[in-house]
Design a protein that fits this description.
Elements (H helix, E strand, L loop, with lengths): L5 H13 L4 H12 L4 H16 L12 H11 L4 H19 L10 E5 L6 H12 L3 E5 L7 H4 L12 H9 L5 E5 L9 H12 L1 H4 L2 E2 L6 E2 L5 E6 L7 H4 L2 E5 L5 H20 L6 E3 L4 H5 L9 H21 L4 E3 L10
Parallel strand pairs: 1-6, 1-7, 2-3, 3-6, 8-9
Antiparallel strand pairs: 4-5
Helix pairs in contact: 1-2, 4-5, 4-6, 12-14
Length: about 350
């Protein structure tokens, strides 16, 4: 492939000069272009420069500092969990006080880590915190993660090098203070556990994350204003150094009474909407709910309840399409035909 025309190089230089990059990084990128390489090498350098330019240096989302609004969002999205909600509201109160005192950049919020069994609301409550603050949120799943480079990025020496998931998350949210959800940090691949935990220590330590170096970028990026939230099923597989940097909050199991309220007032309405079924097309008798809640015995979370209601609503959707009938009533006599 022939060398790119000078106008192409000049256009890239202009992009660099018009960007809001720190001066030292701007000079670094301009130096890369000074050699005016050709072909594939140029394409790789241009891709790297485009990525660097797109990073939101000194761009921040404006936090919504309204505790009453936060409480309303938590109550709207989650039933019960009084102790957990109180802890979150305390956490937001401290954040609000520091923000209103104009100490932006000096306060490092503690890293909340929600610990609990599957279906107890760990992930969804992180989304509620982000909604309360008005910050964008990105979820990074750690289940089965087997390569620390997936987080930290790959050196550009490799032809197929990519940035890590952390820097990609910052780029995609377009602000330097998003909420980044580190989901299921206890479920990383065993063979890579030590290395991944090492990256986590750097991410979650305020003394280190203000100059986090992604191997693809090869220059430090300040992550100190990112709000990291972690989740885990248990703490047994989390390194002690990581535990020292997080504040674990235990998610309680739901009682049958709580599940009934959640199922009736939250999950059923969502399942009906997902199935395209109008609310008035389905009635579930009160004495049927125990069978829906415990089709296979006790479950600490609401995941199986959610699946049961989704299955039930899909069956109703099929009956509506095939028979054009309705509304449908679920009773103790026919519930077996709707819930396995």
């Amino acid at each position: 492939m022939d060398a790119a025309p000078l106008s192409g190089i000049e256009a890239i230089k202009e992009k660099i000069n018009k960007s809001e990059l720190p001066d030292e990084i701007r000079e670094r990128l301009l130096t890369l272009l000074a050699y005016t390489p050709s072909g594939v090498d140029l394409a790789r350098i241009v891709a790297y420069i485009e990525f660097a330019i797109s990073l939101p240096f000194n761009k921040f989302s404006e936090d919504i500092l309204d505790l009453n609004r936060a409480k309303q969002i938590l109550d709207k999205n989650h039933y019960g969990l009084g102790v957990v909600k109180d802890r979150i509201l305390e956490y937001l109160s401290v954040l609000i006080l520091h923000k209103t005192k104009n100490v932006h950049g000096l306060f490092h919020a503690p890293i909340l880590a929600f610990i609990g069994l599957v279906g107890t609301g760990k992930t969804s409550i992180a989304y509620s915190i982000a909604e309360s603050l008005g910050r964008p949120i990105v979820r990074i799943p750690f289940g089965g993660l087997g390569d620390p480079e997936a987080l930290r990025g790959q050196s550009r020496v490799r032809v197929d090098a990519e940035p890590g998931l952390i820097i990609k998350a910052v780029k995609n949210t377009k602000v330097s203070n998003p909420v980044i959800l580190l989901d299921e940090i206890d479920r990383v691949a065993q063979e890579a556990r030590i290395d991944i935990m090492g990256v986590l220590v750097e991410l979650l330590d305020p003394a280190q994350n203000q100059s986090f170096v992604d191997h693809y970028l090869d220059f430090p990026y300040n992550l100190s204003q990112v709000l990291f939230i972690a989740t885990a099923n248990n703490t047994a597989n989390i390194a002690t150094a990581v535990m020292d940097r997080i504040e674990p909050i235990q998610m309680p199991a739901y009682s049958d009474e709580e599940k009934m309220v959640i199922g009736r007032n939250y999950l059923l309405l969502k399942a009906l909407d997902e199935a395209g079924v109008d609310n008035n097309m389905l009635v579930i008798d009160e004495n049927v709910w125990p069978q829906i809640i415990r089709p296979l015995g006790f479950d600490a979370g609401i995941r199986s309840l959610q699946r049961s209601l989704q299955s039930l609503c899909r069956k109703v959707a099929r009956q509506i399409v095939e028979k054009g009938a309705g509304p449908f009533r679920i009773t103790t006599e026919n519930v077996g035909g709707y819930v396995g």
